[in-house]
# Entry
Amino acid sequence: MRVLETCLYVTDLGRAEQFYSGVLGLPLFAKVPGRHLFYRLEGGMLLLFDPRASAQPGDVPPHAGSPGGHACLTLDPARTDDWEARLRAAGLNVTRYAWGDRGESLYFHDPAGNVLELAPPRIWGITV
Amino acid sequence: MRVLETCLYVTDLGRAEQFYSGVLGLPLFAKVPGRHLFYRLEGGMLLLFDPRASAQPGDVPPHAGSPGGHACLTLDPARTDDWEARLRAAGLNVTRYAWGDRGESLYFHDPAGNVLELAPPRIWGITV
# Structure
């Protein structure tokens, strides 16, 4: 099994789109104004919901979370400096943290306050 | 880029371990009692935090979310009936939902109230 959908909740989808599409450069897959933004990543999806819409009853269970989540995307370790500079140039506070000799993570927050991380898979011993 | 870490918040790590290890059968990778359970999946990690511990200040930004999140794991469509029976046998309410002809999802809740889903990648047009 692997993760197919990772979900974060945001309160302003417009700001979220500027951030995830613009700053992070992720490819937008689907968008319903006022409800969600779906990004297609390698092998899976990153779903961003506005809970004011997604928490409403429907055909599937309500998605009634809140900002304050966490997700980590893969980082090519050779591009750590580039990404840190790109994130700082966008006005973000970036925490760079070394996991011993296993690699370094970059931590920052999206506009809704979710904690995002970029990290090389080898911090978990993952080599693919 | 792909998702390396998907994170959910739980309030009772003991019940969470019974559920994620026992009912879902995921492989536990690391455990710190009172703080977290980390599961190693294909190509990435599922992190379960108790925010009473993970929200404390530390070397990396606090992980201060709350239950009510959502994640979806991959499902072999040939095993949908088996998984539905297994989840119902564990006492769960299961919502089975068909995405047109793209496949079916199983929705249920973990003990903390996170909305979990099992779905075949082709609901998103993902074939790997």
